Amino acid sequence: MIQNVNRKISLLSFDIDGTLLNSDSNMSVSTISAIQDVMKRGVKVTLSTGRVPPMLKSYANILGIKGPYVAGNGSIVVNNADNQILFSKPLTDGNLLKLCDYCKKFQLHYTVQTNRFLYYTKDNPRIPILDKYNKISKQYGKSQSEYITIHNHEFDYMYLRAYKVIVLTPTKEQFIMLQRYLDENEGFQYTYSMANSIEITAKGTSKGNGIRLVADYYNIPLEEICAFGDYDNDISIFKLVGMNVAMANSSENLKKIAMYHTASNDNEGIAKALKAMDKCFY
């Protein structure tokens, strides 16, 4: 847990799923209030997530974030003030085609993410999650259903500018085979944000690289950044910034390298951590 911490923190970075949001995919009133109170003291706040921009913008707006955030595991950085893209690095057409052909060959479900749209394989088991996201979005007064498209394996990927592909690997053998394939082919970067799936972006992209761009935008030293996260795709940020905090519900890999731990996303982990970090905000 966080105790007796007294170091200057000028920028807070929050992962979304499993960190900022509880299990119902909502931000609690306590979480929102705690973050906004810190922002009033001059601390900058950003989001760093694997989601595409439209699926996180409503949360950024609720918190009142006026600057950039990191989406697609660092493959795209967007300024929430004007929706301008500050950085983007999509998968090349050739690598996207090769990856989708691999999935088709081994009958693996996958999702292709562009800047605005999600393309799912037919009968993809993750599709029901989208209905949940849409319902939550409507609660915030904004529907995201227009951003979701379902396709089958015959879709022409040559016309997509894809920033991330999520591949579901139901068995350990499939998981290891896909890792080997990615390691043997140049141009791919991969990480994980949930069990039994691999998230793939262009080589050289990561949440860590994304947060470096946000830090440069604000002219804030990396040692004055504190990152909150819960899974392996947050490791690149945790290794880069001056302070990091893992949620109680985090993966074991993230917990091992975390400087501090806090309560779970269902037990006001962020609000409790920010209260304990009060002396860091000056």
Q: Name the CATH architecture of the largest domain.
A: 3-Layer(aba) Sandwich
**Low-confidence segments:** none
According to CATH, what is the topology of the largest domain?
Rossmann fold
Strand order of the largest sheet: 8-7-6-9-11-10
Task: Give the gist of this structure.
This protein has 282 residues and is an alpha/beta fold.
How is this fold's topology laid out?
Elements: E1 11-14, H1 16-20, H2 29-39, E2 44-47, H3 57-63, E3 68-71, E4 76-79, E5 84-88, H4 93-105, E6 110-113, E7 118-120, H5 127-139, E8 148-150, E9 164-168, H6 172-184, E10 188-191, E11 197-202, H7 207-218, E12 225-229, H8 235-238, E13 243-246, H9 252-257, E14 260-261, H10 269-276
Parallel strand pairs: 1-2, 1-12, 7-8, 12-13, 13-14
Antiparallel strand pairs: 3-4, 4-5, 6-7, 6-9, 9-11, 10-11
Could you characterize what this model shows?
There is one protein chain. This protein is an alpha/beta fold. It has two domains: 11-89 and 206-280, Rossmann fold (3-Layer(aba) Sandwich); 93-202, Hypothetical Protein, Haloacid Dehalogenase-like Hydrolase, Chain: A, domain 2. It is built from ten helices and 14 strands. Helix 5 links the parallel strand 7 (118-120) and strand 8. It is globular and about 55 Å long.
